[in-house]
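ok, trying the design again with the full structure, not the truncated one.
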C-alpha cells in the first residue's frame, strides 16, 4: 500500500537464528517510521525493554531507566536505528545526549533496509505513487459527491418559507406525513422554496473524474475492456501497451528491489556457510524471467526488427 499510495516502500530483511525453517525474515516497515536521506536510513520504532534486551543482549540500561526496567520489563521504549553507509547505530530516544543512550553499534556488509519506489522525480528522495498523481481528481470527486448529497438532502426535505404573522410558530413545525400546520386566514402559510437549478451536471463531472482516476490507477489499461475474444494482434498490442506503462516502474523495481534483495540473501547465506560467497556481475548474473521482463525483451526484438 505504501508503494502504490506514497510511491515509496521499505522492506527490512534480517537473518533468522540457525535451525529456523528459513534463513530470512522479512518485515514491512511503514513509511511513517522511516526517514530517508542520501546514503542513510533512520528507523524509529517502539518496543518494550524486554524486547530491546532480547535483540541487543550486550545492552546495559542507563541509570535513569534502570529502576523502571527492573520493576517492569514491559516498559515501552522508543528506539531509533540508523544506517549511514554501512555503519549501524541504535539508540534510545529518551532525551539527553545520544552517546549516553546508545544501545548497539556495528556494520552491515549489505543494506538490510530495501527501499524501492514506484516513480521518481529529479531531486526527490521519496517516490510518487499513482494515487498521488490521481489525488487532485480524487479530492475533486469527493467534493462533488458531497455537494450531490447536500443537494439530495434539499430535494428530500425541501426548503420552506412562511409568513411571520404571529399564528405560525416556526419552532413547532414538524414536516411529517399527516401533520396539520395552522395558518392565518388569507395568508399563504407554509410554501416550498423553489431551488435555483438542478445538479444533473454533477453526473457528467463525476464520470469524467472517475475515468481519469481509473486511468491513473491503471484500472482501465491492464484489464479486458470487453468479453469478446481478442485476436493475437490485439493481445500483442495490449502487452506492448502494458510494457510502455510499467516499463519504467519495472526497471526501477529491478534496480531498487530485486537486485538488493538478491545481494542481501546471498550475503546472509554465505555468512551462514550455506553457499560459497557469490557477488553479482563478477561471479554470477541475474536472469529475469518474469512475464513483463519477457514482454520487454520481445518489445526490444520487435523494435529492432522494425528498424
Amino acid at each position: 500500500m505504501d508503494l502504490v499510495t506514497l510511491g515509496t516502500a521499505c522492506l527490512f530483511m534480517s537473518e533468522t537464528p540457525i535451525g529456523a525453517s528459513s534463513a530470512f525474515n522479512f518485515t514491512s516497515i511503514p513509511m511513517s517510521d522511516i526517514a530517508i536521506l542520501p546514503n542513510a536510513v533512520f528507523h524509529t520504532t517502539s518496543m518494550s525493554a524486554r524486547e530491546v534486551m532480547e535483540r541487543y543482549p550486550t545492552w546495559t540500561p542507563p541509570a535513569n531507566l534502570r529502576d523502571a526496567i527492573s520493576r517492569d520489563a514491559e516498559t515501552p521504549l522508543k528506539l531509533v536505528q540508523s544506517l549511514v553507509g554501512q555503519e549501524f547505530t541504535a539508540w534510545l530516544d529518551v532525551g539527553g545526549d545520544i552517546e549516553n543512550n546508545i544501545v548497539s553499534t556495528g556494520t552491515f556488509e549489505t543494506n538490510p533496509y530495501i527501499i524501492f519506489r514506484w516513480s521518481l522525480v529529479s531531486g526527490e528522495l521519496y517516490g510518487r505513487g499513482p494515487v498521488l498523481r490521481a489525488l487532485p481528481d480524487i479530492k475533486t470527486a469527493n467534493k462533488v459527491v458531497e455537494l450531490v448529497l447536500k443537494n439530495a438532502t434539499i430535494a428530500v426535505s425541501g426548503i420552506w418559507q412562511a409568513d411571520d404573522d404571529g399564528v405560525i410558530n416556526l419552532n413547532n413545525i414538524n414536516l411529517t406525513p399527516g401533520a396539520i400546520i395552522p395558518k392565518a386566514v388569507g395568508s399563504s402559510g407554509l410554501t416550498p422554496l423553489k431551488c435555483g437549478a438542478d445538479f444533473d451536471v454533477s453526473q457528467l463531472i463525476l464520470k469524467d473524474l472517475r475515468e481519469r482516476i481509473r486511468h491513473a490507477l491503471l484500472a482501465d489499461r491492464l484489464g479486458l475492456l470487453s468479453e469478446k475474444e481478442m485476436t493475437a494482434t490485439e493481445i500483442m498490442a495490449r502487452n506492448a501497451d502494458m510494457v510502455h506503462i510499467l516499463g519504467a516502474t519495472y526497471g526501477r523495481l529491478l534496480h531498487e528491489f530485486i537486485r538488493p534483495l538478491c545481494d542481501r540473501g546471498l550475503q546472509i547465506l554465505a555468512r551462514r556457510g550455506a553457499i560459497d560467497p557469490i557477488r553479482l556481475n563478477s561471479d554470477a548474473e541475474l536472469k529475469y524471467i518474469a512475464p513483463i521482463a519477457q514482454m520487454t525483451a520481445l518489445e526490444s526484438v520487435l523494435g529492432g526488427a522494425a528498424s
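Keeping the full-length input from now on. The longest strand covers residues 40-48.
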